[in-house]
Design brief:
Layout lengths: L1 E4 L10 H13 L4 H21 L6 E6 L4 E3 L4 E12 L20 H8 L2 E6 L5 E10 L1
Antiparallel strand pairs: 1-2, 2-4, 3-4, 4-6, 5-6
Helix pairs in contact: 1-2, 2-3
Length: 140
């Protein structure tokens, strides 16, 4: 598991550090390039949302490559799971708009995350704030 924080700044931070950490973790574990690209874009969307709406402190990114593949009974294949979460200080859980207007300048990020990942959600954190996460699966 890797955890990193990018500084909270008035302007959006250079999130290349988060992207590089994610890519390095996934590539080192043999994940396919297409899923790495999907994970990078999904992470970007969650990170930007946390930076814009997440309160006063810097978002905390956690990348977890779950160690043990799980067997899926219907296919009898072993799957491995990547979970990426972005935590911030705001207790407000994200609300996905019912439809993404193609002419709006913002508001499509959660639609992208949902379409790029296998699972997506948000939950309050024990000591305040929230964690927004996504998961991807790949054959082990």
């Amino acid at each position: 598991m890797r955890t990193f924080t990018l500084p909270k700044t008035p302007e959006p931070p250079d999130w290349s550090t988060a992207r590089e950490e994610l890519r390095e973790a996934m590539a080192g574990a043999g994940w396919p390039d297409d899923l790495i690209a999907d994970a990078e874009l999904a992470l970007h969307e969650l990170f930007v949302n946390a930076w814009k709406h997440g309160g006063s402190s810097a978002p905390v990114v956690v990348v977890a490559l779950l160690a043990e593949p799980t067997r899926v009974p219907a296919t009898a294949r072993a799957l491995r799971t990547l979970r990426v979460s972005v935590a911030d200080d705001s207790p407000t859980l994200p609300e996905q708009r019912s439809s993404a207007d193609p002419y709006e300048l913002s508001g499509r990020g959660l639609h992208l995350v949902r379409s790029l990942t296998h699972r997506f959600g948000a939950a309050p954190r024990k000591h305040g704030g929230k964690s927004v996460w996504f998961e991807l699966d790949s054959a082990a």
